């Protein structure tokens, strides 16, 4: 239940942040969605969100968060 509520909040934040060009927030939402989807066993969705977050952090030169996202990718599948 908590994962469903968390996912809804991340998706709502994405819907608000994307059209406003709030790229750091968009990347954070993808990282959070990747973590949540891993917990629910959605492998493809996990990969997609973490790849998006990693790409965005790299493009914005957000090194701390890039390391966090890369660690999630390397984490348990």
Question: Mind explaining what this structure looks like?
Answer:
There is one protein chain. The chain is mainly α and 77 residues long. The chain has one domain (2-74). It contains four helices and no strands. The protein has helices at 2-17, 23-39, 43-59, 63-74. The longest helix is centred in the middle third of the chain and has 17 residues, at 23-39.
Order of SSEs: HHHH
- Please give the share of residues in helix: over 70%
Number of domains: 1
Poorly predicted ranges: none
Characterize the overall form.
flat
The helix count comes to: 4
Number of strands: 0
Coarse structural class: mainly alpha
Which percent range describes the beta-strand content?
under 5%
Give the gist of this structure.
It contains 4 helices and no strands. It is mainly alpha-helical.
